[in-house]
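Example record for the data management plan.
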Amino acid sequence: MAKVVETKYYELLRAPIITEQSMKLVEENNRYTFKVPKTANKVEIKKAVEAVFEVKVIQVNTITVLPKRKKVGKYEGLKPGYKKAIVQLAEGQKIAAFAV
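Corresponding structural encoding:
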């Protein structure tokens, strides 16, 4: 029987952040990085990751990334800021979406 996951959990985990640095964290420390809403807190993020991926979360760190100035030709603007969460899983557990 499939486990029913609330849709609010899917809305909390907006996108995985896959960069060289985040993949290094996955390999060395079993830590996964996600883009989350600015209003999300650590408890909500932990519950969402545990419900969606069926893993045990040990620790959650959050970082608010500030908007950056961007200039294209004569036009100037801002890249939007966002919040990211770095989630550490229990030893031996993995998230298949990050496998390369």
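Summary line stored alongside the record: The domain at 7-91 is CATH 3.30.70.330 (Alpha-Beta Plaits).
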